[in-house]
Amino acid sequence: MGDAGCVHFASYVKEYGYDSYSVVHAYFSACISKEARRRKALSCLCYKCGSSGPQLYSCLHCIYFACKGAHINEHYKHTKHFMALELCYGMLYCYQCRDFIYHSKCQAIAERHLRREARSLDKSLSWRPWSPSRLEIELLLKNPKRRHVTALTSIGLRGLLNLGSTCFMNCIVQALIHTPLLRDYFLAELHECTAKTAAKCLVCEVSRLFQEFYSGARGPLSLHRLLHLIWNHARHLAGYEQQDAHEFFIATLDVLHRHCKISMTELAANAAAAAAAAAAAAANDKSKSSQANCNCIIDQIFTGGLQSDVVCQACKGVSTTIDPFWDISLDLGESSNGQSLIDCLERFTRAEHLGSSAKIKCNTCNSYQESTKQLSMRTLPIVASFHLKRFEHSSLIDKKISTFISFPAELDMTPFMSQKNDTADFRYSLYAVINHVGTLDAGHYTAYVRHQKDIWVKCDDHIITTATLKQVLDSEGYLLFYHKKVLEYE
């Protein structure tokens, strides 16, 4: 079909031009102004049943609004008006082709309207599907050979050499490499770094690892450069003894987060230095603001908000605090008969009486009172990671808890939210599990990761083998990684 739509749209444009499309899109799809939003609210209703959707079409021949399906189809059969605009996503539909069509000029008009809508609402542009630039199109045409991804493909799978008790690092790297949004970010080469800091930047090294994993090569990789960088930036993990995979995961996120902030700050500073004095001052203020409210890829994917409600038992006044988290650490309880992840989450979010020995000063009573404390999820990250606390350390004994904790392939976090929201979707899918076998003194880490939709593999250092979902769900489980099923774009 190409960039010019179809022959039917060409005949429509010859007769009507682009004005109807532009007006309908501006006022009833993108809504470029307050007046456009008012008009849409008052008049954008199905002429047949009077409803506002959920999905409306507008005939481009006579500006007739109708619901998707029978109502808009009836209009076409009666009038033979064949061009319509789907108003939710702004897509052109040709009834003679019986398909949506793409037209480059209409797309350019739509992009202008969306920018005006964003300015009018004082918000960032909504997420849009990728559209190749002219340079990207030329590169695609010059390189026609494509990777054919099948159910049996090994692209994205690489074993990792054990450098001497480094299985704790290997399993975390496998989980991060198979985190979908992190993979998309690095394969799109969105990380920018200055030459000054690139050699010491952990984010640059992780970016290189993604390229290595997806290069098509099959031999195992050595993570010596990554290990060296981690040692330099997280000194408590330096040394050749076995480390805790959970501690390494949190330390890695922390270093990645800090390096992302450094890169963002330095790039902003370089831009400011090249600008005029006034612009430089404004850019510097913006840089400071972005540091305070980090929006790096790590925070976008892994950071959630944990709400703590402390209720005074005297006046029932509530004191609420919200703290960021990268993962949730869960106690396993006392039962040795086996429990579930849901049991652990219910225990984690259960109201707890703090007792007379832990009185908290109530701002309303202005005195120390007994209180209860309850945790809940205020906001959930794209990746929800759970740490099952299998290692118990005390002054008397260090031991491992091998109680079986069942966990689901699909997880709904709705019951654990602070605020109930009927429109939000809090469903998650399991995509990685870290296991620890053996004892505290002589143990070994392995990882199960979801390679494709229904295909799981077991990563045991340099050995990669296929696995079944049953094997994954029957495993002991130490760290569990879930990815949000439905993503809301700001």
Overall SS class: alpha+beta
Largest sheet: 8 strands, mixed
Distance between the termini: 32 Å
Which oligomeric form is depicted? single chain
Secondary structure: number of strands: 23
Shape, please? Answer: globular
Helix proportion of residues, in percent? 25-40%
Gyration radius from CA atoms, angstroms: 28 Å
Look at the structure and give the mean pLDDT: 84
The share of residues in extended strands comes to 15-25%
Question: Mind sketching the topology for me?
Answer:
Blueprint lengths: L6 H10 L2 H10 L5 H10 L12 E4 L5 E3 L2 H10 L3 E4 L4 E4 L4 E3 L2 H18 L12 H9 L24 H11 L2 H8 L7 H4 L3 H12 L10 H10 L11 H30 L2 H16 L4 H6 L1 E9 L5 E8 L2 E3 L8 E2 H8 L3 E2 L6 E3 L4 E3 L1 E9 L3 E6 L2 E3 L4 E3 L4 E2 L3 E3 L14 E12 L4 E10 L2 E6 L2 E5 L1 H6 L4 E6 L6
Supply the key terms:
single chain, 490 residues, alpha+beta, five-stranded antiparallel beta sheet, 16 helices, globular
Please, could you describe this protein's structure?
With 490 residues, the protein is an alpha+beta fold. Helices cover 36% and strands 23% of the residues. It has helices at 7-16, 19-28, 34-43, 70-79, 104-121, 134-142, 167-177, 180-187, 195-198, 202-213, 224-233, 245-274, 277-292, 297-302, 341-348, 469-474; strands at 56-59, 65-67, 83-86, 91-94, 99-101, 304-312, 318-325, 328-330, 339-340, 352-353, 360-362, 367-369, 371-379, 383-388, 391-393, 398-400, 405-406, 410-412, 427-438, 443-452, 455-460, 463-467, 479-484.
